[in-house]
Amino acid sequence: MGAKLNAFRSSVRRVFGISGGREALAHRTSRVLSQQLERAMNVIAVPLILEGASAALLIFSLWDHAPRLILLIWGSVIALSIAASIEFYRRFMADKARVARIRFWLRAQMAHSVITGLLWGVAGSVFPFFDSSIVSLVSPVTAVVVVALGSWPFYAMWLPGLSVFSLLSLGATGLSLIGSYFFTNQLYATVFFLALIAVILYSGLKLNELMTSSILAESENRKLLQRLERERNTAEAARREAEEGSRRRAAFFRAANHDLRQPLQAMGIYLQILRMKKTPDTAPAIEQLSVCAGSISTLVEQILALSRMTADDFTVHRELVSVSALLRALASEFAPVAAEKGVSLSIRPLELRIDTDRLLVSRALRNLVSNAIKYCGSARPEGGEVIVAARRCPAGRVRICVYDNGPGIPREEREKVFHSFYRGSAGRSGPGGYGLGLAIVSAICRRLGIGLSVGSLLGRGTVFRMEFGAAERSEPAGVAPARRAAGPEAVQPLPRRVLFLEDNSAVRRSVSELLRSWGAEVVAEPFFSPQLTERMKAFKPEVLLTDYDLGEGVPNGIDSCLTLAHELRTPLPAVVLTAVPDGVIEEAWRERLPTRGLAEMPEILQKPAGEAELNSALRRACESGSTGSGPRSQAPLPDFSRYPA
Q1: How far, in Å, are 138, 336, 537 from residue 82 at the CA level?
Q2: Containing H/E element for 425?
Q3: What is the pLDDT of residue 480?
Q4: What is d(CA 157, CA 155) in angstroms, rounded to the nearest whole number?
Q5: In what order do the strands lie in the sheet with 603-606?
Q6: 343 to each of 286, 339, 369, 379, 422, how far by Cα in Å?
Q7: How many angstroms separate the CA atoms of 296 and 608, rounded?
Q8: Which residues of the chain have pLDDT under 70?
Q9: How many Cα atoms are found within 13 Å in the side-chain-facing hemisphere of 516?
């Protein structure tokens, strides 16, 4: 059995590729042998039934031809053997540590094979000589053959057991026949019997090899499945970790977006107040503070924009965008800036439409045009030229290019200019900047699937190309440029009653002081509560200025606006001064008011907003409120039971 185990271990080593580790190999071998023996136990019922039936028929057929005491003793031993086999099966299947005890169970299996082989070998070699009748010859031989043929699948699971059983049962019977009938006319029966022995042994060998290969393959497949399961679990854990990381980044950027804009808003308002009170001695310092505040505001805005795009914390809203309208809007926006820098700005549009996100593409183009004007104005104060042109490409694609005749970009810097905070040689020696504008353009193009490339000649200029997918060949009649929000106008007095809701105390104080400087009567509160309603009925606000996010556990700006309009029974125009993205506020408005209700959609200003922007937005809101037609439907009130008193 030791040689067999060594051969079996070699097979396991070959199949599983185990090059070392004797303990690991021994455990793997024991496990496979345990599975092999378990399969043998699953078919043990067949040989046991055949043994019992064959023994009963043999005793019955020889009852009148052989000593009955011997038959009874032999039958009793067969019965005990069957009972022992059943107990062997029960204990083996109940043994949870049978892999570790496989040597014990293999020895028990070998003992079972020896005992069973001896019992049937006695029947085949002794019983034929009890009497010279044909019954005494045929009955034992037939019984042994039947038992052997029915039992070989069970013993073949463990090849040494099959060999022992075959030699002791069939071998003894065959030798008895050869010794008795070799020189008689029964020679052909002897040859047939020996051939039968060879067939059984050969079939058992093949079945053993087949079972061994099957178990080894099954073990290997199980190992592969376990590895796949581990890899799947690892991938799933990595996916969940990435999602959680993305969620944390998004939450961080939202918080940073809100918390960074708040002090910038307050600082900008206080600078406006200082500017109104400046003296010849303080004017230079105030102007420098304004420049620094503007630089910080720009830097924060660019960092937050780039962070959101990198973290995919924004939604793409695709639509058919008119290329001509897009370029005309750019020309209208940047014409005053270009004229101030002494740069000629021109556009060459195409009358077609592209499928993209209007706001994101506009932002990318504004960054490119702003950069082009800035560098042209610096390098060629009297002869700068910027061209924004659209052109058709093969396969129906369209390309929008921004050309300038600025200083150009060296070849080694053309890929680096899209990296965050990278400023090329022209940027370091020319106009100021933070190296984020082109990084934002690159992030937008990646998000929208737009091809982005750059070409440049030193001293002659640069072109940035944005290539879009297939476009509609022409625009339908009546396509108009996208509506643009009205720009800030000159600051004017605002003798209005204003309710101001803002949870940040610095912003609340600064904006309140600015509003009062315009002649407004102001009630400033951190958030709206039911107790504020009675005050507002007496105060009768003409416009609501509110942040959207007013803190945890209190109504947001949209809830406050709708509730006040409902309670006052009059249209309440509102301006939302916030750091929350416009889309979030618009979605909240749609959810709270499925149909047109007591108030119009508030105008949204993103922090930090300048003095002129805020003044213009409030005046427009007041003008729209004065022409309103009154309440049109009942808006549901928020559940104030979940808010503090």
Answers
A1: 24, 106, 100
A2: helix 425-429
A3: 36
A4: 5
A5: 521-525, 497-501, 543-546, 574-578, 603-606
A6: 29, 6, 11, 10, 25
A7: 11
A8: 1-28, 131-138, 158, 177-190, 192-193, 201, 204, 207-208, 210-212, 214-216, 246, 249-262, 291-315, 377-382, 420-435, 471-489, 593-600, 625-645
A9: 10
- Determine the 3-state secondary structure of 589 from DSSP: helix
Closest CA to 401 of 385, 419, 388, 412: 388
Cα 174-176-178 angle, rounded to 5 deg: 70
> Tell me, what's the pLDDT at 483?
34
Distance between CA 401 and CA 336 in Å, rounded? 21
Gyration radius of the chain over CA positions = 47
Tokens representing 127?
């019983």
Task: State residue 625's pLDDT score.
Answer: 62
| Inter-residue contact 581 to 605 (CB < 8 Å) | no
Query: Which amino acid, 340?
Result: E
Q: What are phi and psi of 138, to 5 degrees?
A: -75, -45
Inter-CA distances, 85 with 49, 58, 91, 111, 278, Å: 11, 20, 10, 11, 108
pLDDT of residue 16: 37
Instruction: Please state, in angstroms and as integers, the Cα–Cα distance from residue 423 to each residue in 45, 409, 444, 448, following that order.
Output: 84, 11, 19, 25
Given a contact cutoff of 8 angstroms between Cβ atoms, the answer to whether 153 and 43 are in contact is yes
Q: Check whether the bond before 608 is cis (ω within 30° of 0).
A: yes
Give SS3 for 434: coil
Beta bridge mates, 454 = 464
Q: What is the 3-state secondary structure (H, E, C) of 264-298?
A: HHHHHHHHHHHHHCCCCCCHHHHHHHHHHHHHHHH
Distance CA 435, CA 418 (A): 8
Question: 3-state SS of 514-526?
Answer: HHHHCCCEEEEEC
In angstroms, rounded to a whole number, what is the distance separating the alpha carbons of residues 382 and 419?
A: 31
Number of alpha helices (DSSP H) and beta strands (DSSP E) in the chain: 19, 12
Q: Residue 569 — left, alpha, or beta (φ > 0 → left; ψ -120 to 50 → alpha)?
A: left
Q: Say how far apart CA 361 and CA 388 lie, in whole Å.
A: 14
Query: What's the longest Cα–Cα distance across the chain?
Result: 144
Q: How many Cβ atoms from other residues are within 10 Å of residue 643's Cβ?
A: 15
Q: What CA–CA distance (Å, rounded) separates 511 from 273?
A: 10
Cα distance between residue 329 and residue 242, in whole Å: 39
Q: Cβ(435)–Cβ(420) under 8 Å? A: yes
**Per DSSP, what are the bridge partners of residue 543?**
498
What amino acid occupies position 146? V
